[in-house]
Design goal:
The protein is of the alpha+beta class and about 210 residues long. The protein is about 50% helix and about 15% strand. It is built from 4 helices and 5 strands; from the N terminus they run ααββαβββα. The protein has a 5-stranded antiparallel β-sheet. The termini are far apart. The N terminus is likely disordered.
Length: about 210
Amino acid sequence: MRTMIRNSLNLRLWLTVAIAVVPIFLFMLLDYSERREQAVADIHAEISDRLADANREAKAAHRAVGLALRIMARSNELQSVDNEQCNALAGRLLESLEGFSNLGLALPDGKVVCSSRPSAEAINVSDRAWFHNSMQADGVSPGEFVTGRISQRSVMVFGYRLTNAAGEVRGVIFAAMTLDWFDRLIEHFRLPPNWEASLVSSAGAL
């Protein structure tokens, strides 16, 4: 009998403890779950903001490229594709523009005949994606991440098809942008210590 009473008292004691502790445990679990959900939501919001910033920076860079290429295309110096005049024009534009590594012109066969940066070697860009895209469509081509054959720097190259009054293709004007805009963007992000950011091309190249 005493054993039954003792067991009954022990059971009641454990039930009392459970009634007191379980709500606290459930509250802690619920609080952790809510905090976790809030943390995930904050991370998603932060990523969305960063992607929006990157998109705005990329669009601004593309507008700057388009303006530079159209200025070259409409200039008097390119009406006859005179190498010396074209080199001088490209050089003046490069000095006045921020974030550009090179400007120039390639003929329909890909041979570079004009460049703001002189090259001792003959340069041909017929194998570049930006060149093919420019030859096949109007407007500024999508940028291609490459190592410039003239500048020897990692750059984004854009092309713009040059045509005469009859619509015949005379060549492709190109603009190579440095990656300074990406560095500015990452600096603005203020990433946590030991975090790294990389720029990856559509082909998967870093």
